[in-house]
Specification:
Length: about 120
């Protein structure tokens, strides 16, 4: 059991769209990720996911609307809901989701991260 400093962890990587594992509890994972640009439209069949913005601004596109998250704000996306994260500039996000969650959900692409790196 050790405390985790999110700001320090964020200095340990620079790649975008590649979540890093920073904690686990009760089958859930805490993942840090840096985002820039647009991701792919996708959904998660079995998992809800939480996006908490730490720094920057994140737009989450849905087929019928968009939600803009600023630092300190979060959104829980229910399983099955198609979404597309967009970050016009670099944004730092903490994801809280089940360990089984694949970052690209139902889509496989060059951005799919099969095995998370623990930092």
């Amino acid at each position: 059991m050790e405390k985790v400093n999110l700001a320090e962890k964020l200095t340990q990587f620079s790649d975008y769209w590649s979540p890093k594992l920073v904690g686990e509890l009760n089958g859930q994972t805490l993942r840090l990720v840096k985002l820039s640009g647009e991701f792919v439209w996708h959904h998660h069949e079995q998992e809800d996911e939480l996006f908490l913005v730490l720094e920057g601004q994140l737009t989450l596109l849905f087929r019928d609307r968009e939600v803009i998250l600023n630092p300190g704000e979060f959104l829980v996306i229910p399983r099955g809901m198609e979404h597309k994260p967009v970050a016009p500039e670099e944004v730092h996000v903490l994801l809280f989701e089940p360990a089984s969650t694949l970052n690209t959900g139902n889509i496989r692409s060059e951005r799919t991260v099969e095995t998370l790196q623990r930092i």
